[in-house]
Design a protein that fits this description.
Elements: E1 2-3, E2 6-7
Antiparallel strand pairs: 1-2
Length: about 40
């Protein structure tokens, strides 16, 4: 996960909160499918 200008590994069961109007990105280390639960806080 790219947030705050740096890549961070998010392990199973972990979460991260960030400002989505800032540059961010995602990538998978393998071809295995994963579940992402994205919540938008207002």
């Amino acid at each position: 996960m790219l947030a705050g200008g740096e890549w961070k590994k998010i392990n199973e069961g972990e979460s991260i909160r960030f400002y989505a109007d800032q540059p961010h990105g995602y990538y998978g280390e393998t071809d295995k499918a994963v579940f992402q639960n994205i919540i938008r806080y207002l």
